[in-house]
Amino acid sequence: MKPIIAIVGRPNVGKSTLFNRLVGRRKAMVDDMPGVTRDRNYAEVNRFDVPFILVDTGGFEPETNDRLLQQMREQSQLAMDEADLILFVMDGRSGLTPADREVVEMLRRVDKPVFHLVNKVDGDKLESGIGDFYALGVETLYPVSAEHNRGIGDLMTEVCEALPVDRSEAQDEDITRIAVVGRPNVGKSSLVNRLLGFERVVANPTPGTTRDAVDTLFTWHKKRFLLIDTAGIRRKGKTTEKIEKYSVMDSLRSIERADVVLIVINAEEGVTEQDSKIAGYAYEAGRGCIFVVNKWDTLEKDNATLGRFVDRIRTEFKFLPFVPIVFVSAKTGQRLGKIMEEVDNVMAQYAKRVTTSELNRVFSAATAAHHAPLFQGRRVKFYFATQVGTRPPSFVIFTNRPEGIHFSYERYLANQIREAFGFTGTPLHLMFKGRE
Ligand code: GDP
Ligand code: GDP
């Protein structure tokens, strides 16, 4: 389970610049995959000593000056409650402000590592730019330049040392871990109660690794399943703005620990932006996914209603055409059994292995039917493909030009693999390796 790092600070201090710097986001990716990476304010980061989830708390809502202080308080509270480590960013060019002081006071009360950054210190002598910030009385200040990548490496070395050690339980291969995620009020706790209600709970809830997360183990058709953070899901009754924001971080945590993610959508409201963000994260994290459209009982239906809803989901989640959709009602119990059938099915696909000979038959046919575009005027040749892992299914493909494979060709190959082998509900991970 990866720790969460939150970035907090006034507008314009450079939070999103720092976010992009730490994520190492490539511009091309953003253009290539519209709707997936664009505007994302959280990401999984694997390029430092310890992998973590990074959240830019400033990205949760538009920032206006009149509400500045209140927003800063909310942001900081959010980070204090939910993150494992906080990067508080100030602006070395505009100097220390009263809002900065207030947040520093708030952060003193938190029992988590807090790093105080002075950003936009672009010059050669980093320390000379931060004189007045010593008035804050914090032990260590980190002068950095997010834009010019100065002081970031040293900062991250210390950040990684301060992160909590992962004490996550050894993964039991026989258990399918299910995360139920979605906006407040979509019916998550009703669904969880139903799922656990008609299946026998075989173990008492066991305390999770952090906070008061409680997972529940149950059996279905003689197989074992674990519902992640059932207490957290049930606790969410209120729908204040604050809880709305908390639910994103809760969702990320649950997704991190899951094999299969139930992305719950409210039939009454249709697909919202937050649904897309959560689904995008589950996809990038490489988890099995199922769309659960709940409150299906509330719609006036004719024989086109279902088809229209499917179309909408397929349009909104273009990057997830392989994810099954189930339409249910936690209230009436309609089609709830279908959820567990799909979980079982997606888990089987998520953990599936295909033989090297079958894979290469499909792969040679695919590369012959549709050649990869030339790279720097030269032909891209493919030699051999092999499945190197599961959960999610991962493949290594040997080629003379690993750097010359365009994203769209990669997607073509993934689609061909799907067409031949299914892999319903699971992302595929393709890696290209060089060989002359
Ligand atoms: P946010 O509102 O806190 O997310 O701030 P942004 O990341 O959008 O940055 C606000 C402005 O500060 C942008 O114009 C950035 O280019 C600029 N900026 C960010 N980091 C640095 C830095 O290290 N040095 C300088 N000189 N400018 C920076
Ligand atoms: P959560 O915040 O996502 O956990 O949502 P809850 O399970 O607390 O449900 C929010 C509200 O929606 C409650 O009033 C539920 O009774 C109601 N609800 C949940 N599922 C359904 C459903 O399938 N149909 C209808 N009509 N209402 C539902």
UniProtKB/TrEMBL annotation:
InterPro entries: AAA+_ATPase, G_ENGA, GTP-bd, GTPase_Der, KH_dom-like, KH_dom-like_a/b, P-loop_NTPase, Small_GTP-bd. GTP 1 binds at residues 9-16, 56-60, 119-122. Keywords: GTP-binding, Hydrolase, Nucleotide-binding, Repeat, Ribosome biogenesis. Coiled coil: none annotated. Pfam families: KH_dom-like, MMR_HSR1. SUPFAM superfamilies: P-loop containing nucleoside triphosphate hydrolases. Associates with the 50S ribosomal subunit. GTPase that plays an essential role in the late steps of ribosome biogenesis. Belongs to the TRAFAC class TrmE-Era-EngA-EngB-Septin-like GTPase superfamily. EngA (Der) GTPase family. PANTHER family: GTPASE DER. This is GTPase Der. It comes from Geomobilimonas luticola.
